[in-house]
User: Fold this.
Amino acid sequence: MTAAELAIETSQVEPSRTKRLKAATQDAHKVLDGFIMSAKPFESRENFAKFVQTQYLFHRDLDAFFFNDTLAELLPDLKGRRRLGFIEQDLADLSTTVPASSATHFSHDDAAFDLPEALGWLYVVEGSNLGAAFLLKDAAKIGLGETFGARHLAGAPEGRGLHWRTFVAALDAVELTAEEENRVIAGAEAAFHTVHDHAKRVMV
Assistant:
């Protein structure tokens, strides 16, 4: 039984889609975190710049979602959650080039847009912002912060907790079929694997 199938089977026990996603993707998340920390991104600004390049590639992959009207109707302040611009500023602060990349995973005119898949990817990117408070403290040790070099790790004006809870409430409220629930989980797993692939290319 796959992680996605297990999550669907237990969905009646755990009504929160967000919590089911966390359970289904915990292994992929743990492996990714372990790899990134093994690259010692907070040991030097040079290492941190590689981490920011990884962030750029991931956020660029899903940037189209922040301009999608369907998603905007379902998720509050979607455009306000976009962090690609801050990442670009961080790269400039660190005198680091924008990494070369192939085509993004999702385009602005993608006729094959899949809502469940998009929700899975957005779960991953929003979750990363929630945990960024700890990364911001580590970045401060090398002289970086919310106004220079680590802008994309800054919390929302209303606070990380409220920002996350607002997203969770909206994500959990979207009505989906059991098959679509599987695609949400598959999307989240794909997002974690994509970040890992970018990190292996940039951070080693």
